[in-house]
Design a protein that fits this description.
39% of the residues lie in helices and 20% in strands. Helix 2 (71-87) runs antiparallel to helix 4 (104-128), helix 2 (71-87) packs across helix 6 (188-200) and helix 3 packs antiparallel against helix 6. It is globular, with a radius of gyration of 23 Å. The chain is an alpha/beta fold. It has 2 domains: 15-257 and 453-476, 3-Layer(aba) Sandwich (Aldehyde Dehydrogenase, Chain A, domain 1), CATH 3.40.605.10; 262-439, Aldehyde Dehydrogenase, Chain A, domain 2 (3-Layer(aba) Sandwich), CATH 3.40.309.
Length: 485
């Protein structure tokens, strides 16, 4: 059946606390980027400081049950949740499409499946885990993981379902109870996930969902001294507030805070492949933290690269996210579209050259795919994350200059290197400061590898055992070798 506003019904719009759905006295509205002027897509409960306190109380109780379960018992529940996610692919994809504008086909084919994979991955990791043991000084040493306690998981508005599962899976696998606070611009797919945790058999209070505004309920959650872990994806500005609250209570805190990734094209690169991938950085309207938004191209390739880049960018189709022919979705919110346009307008005023695009599309939340050639490497559009379909274009004369430019921002989340030389790939890959570097590819990852950023791109690492160690309290058990019985 074709997805329409008329035949779609929103999921539960309250909070899930201690296994019960509860509503607040106040609500906030979520609207669809596909038809913003249509009015509210749903009215969602607006949590308060009391909601936050109730959720932490429930999580404390839920931790007593969930944390006491064996890793194998938890893994069984996580795998059941993964099965249910796959069973409800259409419902999740449709909610995400209408709520934040994500391409429906992409959700169905890639991102919902990735959500299920995240839970299966961590089920396997805790099932297969063997404590590290070694002898030393006549002692048998064993490192054990202990569940840490209630964890606050705050997730972003872009790709909210997939990124929620990426954070929730290790927290739950480690034995922690969680309080999940999704972004207020895209709250609905989290509600479906909450419903599925109940169907999967999570004990009451092990997973709690709190909806609301970040400055209100989110701030109360991270300030609660009973919370033992905080993990956040969002902006550096918000992370600074959370970090201060975490420090006050001495709570471990991880943050993934966006990027300003360089896409480096050397003179020995497969030029058409590099230009094609560069044009596809406009995917999801540039609302992707890992995107290579700074195109750094060898001076000798300048004209040839731009010709191919424009050719590929011209093929991209802006349209309705429900249409499988659409490549460029609308932006999530008028406020965000206006923020992106503000960057472009200031770039024009400061003397940067807008090579293509640079305007919001009338009658929708789409923004033209935009390329800017800055007057200086110090230009705002080079140094700050725009998080929209806006790329910058600069050239370099040699490898040393390319590396210096790549490392010239405060961010360090990801980078791309396009070269046919394995030696250059190794050399430049080591020199670039980023948590993740791709060579001749993009968005391909082993989920057991560490993920995170340098500089203001974040604190800590997610992925595989790195996330499980973060969500655990590590204990070293030392037994004298002569101990018997």
């Amino acid at each position: 059946m074709e997805l329409t506003f008329e035949n779609w019904r929103p999921p539960a719009t309250g909070h899930l606390i201690g296994g019960q759905w509860v509503d607040s006295g106040d609500t906030f509205e979520t609207r669809s980027p596909l038809d913003w002027d249509r009015g509210p897509l749903a009215l969602v409960s607006r949590g308060t400081s009391q909601t936050a306190a109730d959720a932490v109380t429930a999580a404390e109780a839920g931790f007593e049950t969930w944390g006491a379960m064996s890793p194998h018992e938890r893994a069984t529940v996580l795998r059941k949740l993964a099965d249910l996610i796959e069973k409800h692919t259409d419902a999740i994809a449709e909610a995400e499409c209408l709520d934040m504008g994500f391409l429906l086909q992409s959700m169905r084919e890639r991102l919902v499946a990735r959500g299920a994979t995240n839970f299966r991955l961590y089920a396997d990791l805790i099932d297969d885990h063997v404590d590290k043991t070694w002898p030393a000084k006549k002692m048998a040493n064993t490192v054990q993981r202990m569940p840490a306690g209630p964890a606050v998981v705050i997730t972003p508005w872009n790709a909210p379902f997939m990124l929620s599962t990426w954070k929730l899976a290790p927290a739950l696998a480690a034995g922690n109870s969680v309080i999940h606070k999704p972004a207020e611009w895209s709250p609905l797919s989290a509600a479906i996930l909450a419903e599925l945790t109940q169907e999967a058999g999570f004990p009451a209070g092990s997973y709690n969902l709190v909806q609301g505004i970040g400055e209100e309920v989110g701030a109360a959650l991270v300030a609660d001294p009973r919370v033992r872990r905080i993990t956040f994806t969002g902006s550096p500005e918000t992370a600074r507030h959370i970090g201060r609250a975490a420090a006050e209570n001495i709570v471990p805190f991880t943050a993934e805070l966006g990027g300003k990734g360089p896409l480096m094209v050397f003179d020995d690169a497969d030029l058409d492949a590099a230009a094609h991938r560069a044009a596809w950085q406009f995917d999801d309207s540039g609302q992707v933290c890992l995107a290579g938004t700074r195109l750094l191209v060898a001076e000798s390739l300048r004209d040839a690269f731009l010709e191919r880049f424009h050719h590929h960018a011209d093929q991209l189709i802006m349209g309705d996210s429900r249409d499988p022919q659409t490549d460029i979705a609308p932006m999530v919110h008028p406020e965000h579209r206006d923020r992106v346009h503000g960057f472009v307008e200031r770039a024009r005023a400061s003397g940067d050259h807008v090579v293509r695009g640079g305007q919001p599309m009338p009658g929708s939340l789409h923004y033209e795919p935009t390329l800017i050639e800055p007057a200086s490497n110090n230009s705002e559009v080079v140094q700050h994350e725009i998080f929209g379909p806006v790329l910058t274009f600069q050239t370099f004369t040699d490898e040393a200059e390319a590396i210096a430019m790549a490392n010239s921002t405060a961010y360090g989340l990801s980078a791309q290197i396009w070269t046919t030389s394995r030696q250059r790939a190794e050399r430049v890959g080591r020199a670039v400061r980023a948590g993740l570097v791709w060579v001749n590819t993009f968005l391909v990852r082993d989920l057991t590898a560490p993920f995170g950023g340098c500089g203001i791109s974040g604190i800590g690492r997610e992925g595989g055992d790195y996330a499980l160690d973060f969500h655990s309290d590590l204990k070293t058990l030392m037994i004298l070798d002569e101990t018997t019985g």
